[in-house]
UniProtKB/TrEMBL annotation:
One of its GO terms (molecular function) is thymidylate synthase (FAD) activity. It comes from the Bacteria. It is an enzyme of class 2 (transferase). This is FAD-dependent thymidylate synthase. Transmembrane segments: none annotated. Keywords: Methyltransferase, Transferase. The keyword Transferase applies.
Length: 471
């Protein structure tokens, strides 16, 4: 008789993560049930298994079955960038859109202890935070008059409705030293990779945070992250490449430049869709698509993309075509953009060299002059510090300053990012970017691009004019 199907959970309350990982790994060679395998294991046997198979023979994927939930509090947003650089993990952090920062909620880098510029750093951060706090009620007034309380709305509901709108503007003051909390769910393999990056990092804070994470992780996965250490390759290559790339920083001609896309992208994507559900060679599928009339192609794309809502992603075959963008946006916006994991993101170091943006509401709140003064102050402090240590200098850079990044993403990820970030509840920096990316994608792949779920109620030009004095 056919054995009965079984589905059950391995209980993380009673089985440590390393034991769960071994239980799953052993099914590869053992005919026993998972329950029986787990019953025979101890923490010591699990550790010995991992030493032999994961560490010794490099069967590293086994470590993916050991999952940790790590709470990190009061790390700088600059350090969080490295922590969040792993694409195979999940993060939720303190939001600059929904929470407010206190006047001393910023990181004091140990590298600066006793340094002649230490006081200047502290003074600049304190000034930025003071201005942030003074701006909150003033910008709130502007937003409150723009979005008045409705007759059917109580005070608390209205406050919730306008809160993110004025906090969204004031976040431009916050420097990368601002402290945040982040919850991380990550498997032991991805964690080991992240720790290697953190322990190889030029900033002391990132290395110390890496060490602390490693220590707490070892209490539940004693073997799997034991050997995570600094990697000489990761330590040596960035400074070497930085030296090779030395040159004067200039602004890009286009803040959202579509640099490259696949030739014959649409034929390729449609052929991939047919290929997946057929027994054709790819060349046969490609020829089939190439022979279709425009109307037939449109009808095919309509079936593939035409009836989706933003919660139903298109089929995976849309990943076979991609786009490379060079984008420049404010650091606050970049910090949100980097959370999209299904793309390749290469940010340049955070600096003040590309200048800063000015939200329109800052001027409306009567803060134009003081905003410029404090941004100039941050710029000067950054430049003074950067001569000595550009990594440490980055702590002082406010969210208003521009950051440039290279992005490679496939159509499916672009579809998701544009739907999510052009939506009315997204931050205006991201809405502007999503609209412009959509426009570029539509220009080179119009057949597919017409089905992007881009918010039809505004354009990037309207967003720019409405929210930015200087974008
Ligand atoms: C309105 C709004 C409010 C937000 N507020 C906060 C906040 O307060 N704090 C905060 O930290 N972040 C916040 N975010 C960011 C959000 O949590 C996501 O990190 C971000 O939008 C990236 O998008 P994504 O997770 O959909 O997927 P991406 O990383 O862009 O990945 C694309 C798709 O791949 C799949 N995917 C990727 N990784 C995984 C995974 N590990 N497991 C399962 N599926 C995966 C999902 O289907 C996902 O939609 C907010 C976002 C929005 C839109």
């Amino acid at each position: 008789m056919c054995p009965e199907r079984q589905v059950y959970l391995l209980d993380p309350q009673s089985l440590p993560p390393e034991t769960i990982a071994v239980t799953f790994a052993k099914t590869s060679r053992s005919p026993q049930s998972f329950r029986d395998i787990a019953a025979e294991l101890t923490a010591e046997k699990s550790a010995a298994f991992h030493e032999k198979w994961v560490v010794g023979y490099g069967h590293a994927s086994v470590a993916e079955h050991a999952v940790l939930h790590i709470a990190v509090e009061n790390a700088s947003r600059l350090a969080i960038e490295t922590l969040e650089s792993c694409r195979l993990a999940s993060y939720t952090e303190k939001s600059t859109r929904y929470q407010k920062w206190g006047s001393e909620d910023f990181f004091h880098p140990p590298e600066l202890a006793g340094h002649p510029l230490e006081n200047r750093y502290l003074e600049t951060c304190r000034t930025l935070f003071e201005h942030y706090q003074q701006a909150l009620p003033k910008v709130r007034e502007v937003i409150a008059s723009e979005y008045p309380c409705q007759p059917d709305e109580d005070e608390a509901t209205w406050e919730r409705r306008i809160r993110s709108k004025y906090v969204d503007v004031c976040r431009f003051y916050l420097p990368a030293a601002a402290l945040a909390n982040v919850g991380v769910t990550i498997n032991a393999r991805a964690l080991e990779h992240t720790l290697r990056k953190m322990l190889s990092h030029p900033l002391e804070e990132v290395r110390a945070l890496g060490t602390e994470i490693k220590n707490v992780a070892r209490s539940v996965v004693p073997t799997l992250v034991k050997y995570a250490d600094a990697v000489p390759y990761l330590q040596a290559l960035p400074p070497f490449l930085a030296q090779e790339a030395e040159g004067t920083p200039i602004a890009s001609d286009d803040w959202c430049h579509l640099i490259a896309w696949d030739a014959e992208a649409e034929t390729l994507a449609l052929a991939a869709c047919l290929f997946r559900y057929s027994h054709l060679t790819f060349e046969q599928a490609r020829k089939k698509v190439a022979a279709l009339t425009v109307e037939e192609k449109t009808a095919l794309v309509q079936r593939i993309l035409g009836n989706l809502d933003r919660f139903t992603p298109p089929i995976r075959e849309l990943e076979h075509i991609g786009y490379t963008f060079e984008v420049t946006l404010d650091q606050g916006g970049y910090f949100e953009l980097k959370r999209h994991r299904m793309m390749t993101l290469s940010p340049q170091p955070l600096s003040t060299y590309l200048g800063y943006t000015i939200p329109r509401a800052i001027e409306a709140a009567g803060l134009y002059d003081s905003y410029n003064r404090v941004m100039e102050m941050a710029d000067q402090t950054y430049r003074a510090l950067a001569v000595w240590n550009p990594e440490v200098a980055a702590y002082v850079v406010p969210n208003a300053f521009r950051r440039r990044a290279l992005i490679r993403l496939n159509f499916r990820q672009a579809w998701h990012l544009i739907a999510l970030r052009s939506a009315a509840n997204a931050h205006f920096s991201l809405r502007r970017l999503a609209q412009r990316m959509a426009e570029r994608i539509q220009a080179v792949t119009p057949l597919l691009g017409q089905f992007l779920l881009v918010n039809p109620d505004e354009t990037w030009q309207q967003i720019e004019a409405r929210y930015f004095l200087r974008a």
